[in-house]
Specification:
- The longest helix has 21 residues.
- The protein has 18 helices and 20 strands.
- A seven-stranded mixed beta sheet has the order 9-8-10-11-13-12-18, with helices on both faces.
- Helix 7 crosses helix 8.
- It is α/β, with parallel strands linked by helices.
């Protein structure tokens, strides 16, 4: 019985690779198996290599590894691209009737299935990938009936005939392998359980968190890989009285979201690196007008257009410092898919409590990766809404000046002014991007300027005192070796520990979801013999912050190939890095 199985399908963009992978992932989840997926796709609609990989186990999995057990190859390039991950027990499903002649290494098991012919018999050549799924079910000992519900979900809107044809195609592939091959030597037998899991990706978790947090206005412009946040909210937010607007560009999107927030709605926009560049103009207006707004940045490879469909964590400095002048803000970076949900909720609360922009920083790897979780991981009853100093007509009087004007930018000890949404009796006020006094009126008075700047900056200090800017820790807390990461690297690090332990290497891991403000790691780094910071960029942007905080050099593991870290690869990198000298002070 193989509890941990790695499966992939690959071909050209436009071959239905993504839908095929998602159907199989959903079937595995419905069978009570944990799933962790990875996608490789080109930035084009048709053509270019694309793949969908699934790692599945009865235990939770948090990373991909350098191993493939079953490969559905629709092209020769699919085999060539994955040769390094295939092994002696791997099975390769391909269609020998097609024009290309598969070159499969002798030590691997070639499973030639007439995918197109069987699909045509079931109702159409377009279903050849479903035939391949049926073949994979037979090879792995996975009951083909688990595909049925996933097929119904995928094709139910196209009519019962389409659904039945796809079910027939899956069984055709399963029966063909059963009748023509004896593959017992492979030893695959996927165990199923009665567990009920939720399968979703990071962008879906962000969208779900926004709805749970009370977001009722979203404005955005399509951009890879952030677009699916808008797609998730469209059709759902309307059920709660909200609206999604597709703007003509990113600058319009953030300004629409700003308008929604000024009107009193919890509002949000999302984009990626190139879009963040365009939105930067508005960051200062959000902060100076003290408008609560959540800005999600789903990072991808840059700069400029870069590699739109590849992984990177290169926007950290932009989130921290983007915008002219000094812009108080918070930067939150979820470290797992389920945390995308909870940190989105927290981002909305922080935005309203402190009336600042909150940057929710994710990345491509987390945005498209689908992972299974028990339903209780998203307990809606545990969601708390905190709207901060939002005043109503019964509270507004205490914030009026002697002439009865509402002091929307009142100077306070904690830096947080009262907030009245339009329509609040006696709460009418002015707000501008120009420097202003407590009433929002333009001013160049030196004292007023200092009062307002200091007030806005005090919000961050107040938040440092009131909020829990903590980190997550795992591994051996007494280990001399410390590894620090942020964002989506947590899962790979957690599983890398198993490889390191097998080699007798003890490591303490700290995963940081708060970039600004961030936890003070001085004591942890001082106690460690070796400190390594892991991130997906070339210059070590988070490592720079750590060194700035603790005035100590750290070792760095940086990956900027456009591909996420894998658990076994990361374990090797950590082992090698521990043997290097610490950089000079």
């Amino acid at each position: 019985m193989a509890e941990d199985l790695n499966w992939a399908v690959g071909g050209e963009a436009g071959d239905g690779i993504d839908s095929t992978g998602k159907i199989f992932a959903q079937a595995l989840a419905r069978a009570g198996r944990h799933v962790f997926t990875s996608k490789d796709f080109a930035s084009r609609i048709r053509g270019g290599y694309t793949a969908y990989k699934i790692r599945t186990s009865v235990d939770q999995v948090q990373s991909v590894v350098d191993r493939l057990d079953i490969l559905v190859a629709l092209t020769q390039r699919t085999i060539d691209e994955n040769l390094d991950e295939l092994h002696e027990g791997s099975a390769i499903i391909y269609d020998g009737e097609r024009s290309w002649e598969a070159e499969i290494p002798d030590e691997m098991t070639a499973v030639d299935v007439p995918l197109k012919s069987l699909a045509e018999e079931a109702g159409g050549a377009i279903m050849r990938n479903i035939v391949a799924l049926g073949a994979a079910c037979e090879i792995t000992g996975f009951d083909v009936e688990y595909l049925d519900e996933a097929l119904e979900k995928r094709f139910g809107g196209k009519g019962s005939k389409i659904v039945e044809n796809n079910k027939e195609a899956a069984r055709a592939g399963q029966e063909y392998v059963q009748e023509n091959y004896d593959l017992d030597h492979l030893g695959y037998d996927l165990e199923t359980t009665d567990n009920d899991y939720v399968l979703l990706n990071g962008n879906e978790a962000v969208g779900m968190g926004a709805l749970a947090a009370g977001c009722r206005f979203y404005a955005g412009y399509p951009i890879t890989p952030a677009t699916s946040i808008m797609e998730y909210l469209t059709g759902r937010i309307e059920e709660y009285g909200g609206h999604v607007v597709q703007a003509e560009d990113e600058l319009s999107a953030i300004n629409m979201a700003l308008g929604g927030a000024r009107a009193g709605a919890r509002a949000m926009t999302a984009t990626s690196g190139a879009g963040i560049d365009l939105m930067t103009e508005t960051f200062g207006l959000v902060a100076t007008s003290e408008t609560p707004l959540v800005i999600a940045d789903v990072q991808r490879s840059g700069p400029s257009t870069g590699m739109p469909t590849k992984q990177e964590q290169g926007d950290l400095n932009m989130a921290l410092y983007g915008g002219h002048g000094e812009v108080p803000r918070f930067v939150v970076a979820p470290t797992s898919i389920d945390e995308c949900f909870w940190k989105t909720v927290e981002a909305f609360n922080l935005a309203e409590k402190y009336q600042t922009p909150v940057f929710l920083v994710s990345d491509l790897a987390m945005s498209v990766t689908e992972q299974t979780f028990p339903p209780e991981a998203f307990d809606m009853d545990a969601v708390e809404i905190d709207r901060g100093k939002l005043v109503d007509e019964d509270e507004v009087d205490e914030w009026l000046d002697a002439q009865g004007h509402f002091r929307a930018h009142a100077v306070t000890d904690d830096g947080i002014s009262p907030r009245a949404i339009p329509g609040t009796t006696d709460g009418a006020h002015m707000s501008t991007g120009l420097e202003h006094d407590e009433l929002g009126r333009r001013t160049e008075d030196e004292d007023e300027r200092v009062h307002q700047v200091d007030k806005r900056n005090r919000k961050v200090e107040t938040a440092r005192e009131r909020e829990d800017w903590d980190y997550r820790e795992f591994g051996n807390e007494d280990a001399d070796n410390l590894v620090i990461s942020w964002g989506s690297n947590e899962g790979a690090l957690a599983e890398a520990l198993e490889y390191l332990e097998d080699d007798g290497i003890d490591v303490r891991v700290i995963s940081v979801p708060y970039i600004f403000p961030r936890p003070d790691l001085s004591d942890e780094i001082e106690a460690a013999d070796e400190t390594i910071v892991v991130e997906c960029n070339a210059t070590g942007q988070f490592a720079d912050l750590i060194e700035h905080d603790v005035l100590t050099r750290v070792k760095r593991i940086n990956k900027y190939t456009g591909v996420r870290f894998k658990a076994d690869e990361l374990a090797d990198e950590i082992t090698a890095k521990l043997s290097e000298e610490v950089p000079a002070q």
